[in-house]
Design a protein that fits this description.
The chain has seven helices and 15 strands. By secondary structure, it is α/β, with parallel strands linked by helices. Helix 4 links the parallel strand 9 and strand 10.
Length: 278
């Protein structure tokens, strides 16, 4: 027996990804299936109950330890680089770019906001489902001024589809595209409002064409929950008179160039002078 919230993996995929069960369904034939959300990956998938294997607390704990180690390594690299940049500029103070994140998953959103705060970034998070985001994004931007906008949640290329260019082949890409377009109607300048949008296997080309600076997923790969966060950190702490190196920024992500990509973008940090002793 399975329940909503259980941690499972799929036999058919060699148990490579751990999921939470988000929803249980029964069709008219009495066949049971589940909607699955990745624990660390922004993937939405479905599977028959017969394909699922439950994961024990010890297996889940071991999986999370490995993931936490990887995240720590990336975070340490980022903070070390930022400290080195500051050593020669101690008389200045920094005002990093403000972040607004709309996320279809409350758990991921909470984790991201916590990570932003650890990095010293002013960030606000609002949980809205992927389908809601296009309808509310302009009003939210009006009420919450930001320099960097993150639009994410869960996505996936639908099994059996063939057309990688059609938004109909994806679970949520259509909503990310529409949200980016709405945000660009509010602020058309890609340097005045930097946008990251997408999740696992999203329609990368369509999201960039809609006006995003960064998106997922060039090779329709799975992306980590913190990939957008690590991209945002580099943008938020790059001075406004500098262009962020696209190649450099992607080396700081967990997924790399298979999972995320983008266009040249101006940094969003402003330096101030003098630094107050208080």
């Amino acid at each position: 027996m399975f329940h909503v919230g259980d941690v499972v993996a799929r036999y058919s995929h060699q148990q490579d990804i751990f999921f939470h069960i988000a929803q249980l369904n029964v069709n008219y034939k009495g066949e049971e299936s589940a909607i699955l959300k990745g624990i660390n990956l922004r993937l939405l998938a479905d599977a028959p109950i017969s394909d699922l294997v439950a994961k024990s607390p010890s297996e889940v704990a071991n999986h999370e330890r490995k993931d936490s180690k990887l995240i720590y390594q990336k975070l340490h690299k980022l903070t070390s680089q930022r400290k080195a940049d500051l050593d020669d500029k101690r008389e200045f103070f920094e005002v990093p770019g403000r972040v607004l994140q709309l996320d279809g998953d409350q758990d991921y959103l909470d984790q991201c906001i916590k990570m932003y705060r650890q990095m010293g970034i002013d960030a606000k998070g609002i949980c809205k489902s992927e389908i809601e985001q296009p309808r509310v994004i302009r009003k939210i931007l009006q009420e919450n001024p930001a320099d960097i906008l993150v639009l994410t949640g869960h996505d996936g290329f639908i099994y059996g589809k063939k057309d990688f260019h059609s938004n109909d082949s994806y679970r949520s890409s259509r909503y990310f595209v529409e949200s980016v377009m709405e945000a660009r109607r509010f602020q058309h300048n890609r340097d005045a409002l930097v946008i990251f949008a997408g999740a696992c296997q999203s329609n990368y080309e369509a999201i960039l064409s809609a006006g995003a600076n960064f998106a997922s997923s060039p090779k329709r790969m799975l992306i980590h929950a913190f990939d957008p966060v690590f991209i945002v950190e580099r943008i938020a702490f790059t001075p406004t008179d500098q262009i962020v190196s696209v190649k450099d920024i992607l080396t700081h992500t967990i997924t790399g160039t298979d999972g995320v990509g983008g266009v040249e973008t101006r940094g969003q940090m402003r330096r101030g002078y003098p630094r107050s002793p208080y």
